[in-house]
Design a protein that fits this description.
The chain is 32% helix and 18% strand. The protein has helices at 25-35, 54-59, 67-77, 83-89, 120-125; strands at residues 2-4, 9-11, 14-21, 42-43, 46-50, 63-64.
């Protein structure tokens, strides 16, 4: 089932609603596409829907509920992604892979032209 709250969240000179699914993100994305909401409107566990699209969302079948009910429904469905947890789940791209954890660790320097900063080709040319 799809749910949304009334447009009451101001941003960028407009009022916005939140659209959620208590079934899956796939259902949510499909509904948002039918509604004409761009994918960039997806924010962790909901879509931000401008007030201009509110009536169409209801017409397409989204059920109107209070904002607190949206959060409760997401939690019960196991689909809630709060900001503080979303940041913690974002991988640190600067972290090095852990050897033995599915990806090779950093290569150890070896003797030869590569270790000195040259290439194998440069090593062969020096012979």
């Amino acid at each position: 089932m799809l749910y949304l709250d009334r447009p009451g969240w101001p941003s960028r000179g407009r009022l916005w609603s939140h659209l959620i699914s208590d079934v899956s993100y796939a259902e949510l994305h499909a509904f948002a596409e039918a509604l004409g909401a761009p994918r960039r409107g997806f924010d962790r566990d909901h879509y931000d829907i401008p007030a201009e699209r509110f009536a169409m969302a209801v017409w397409l079948g989204a059920r109107l509920v209070p904002s607190r009910e949206l959060v409760r429904l997401l939690r019960e469905a196991g689909l809630r992604r709060p900001k503080h947890l979303a940041r913690a789940a974002t991988p640190d791209r600067s972290a090095r892979p852990v050897p033995g954890a599915g990806s090779p660790g950093p290569a150890a320097p070896t003797a030869g032209p590569s270790a000195a900063g040259g290439t194998a080709r440069a090593g062969r040319a020096a012979r």
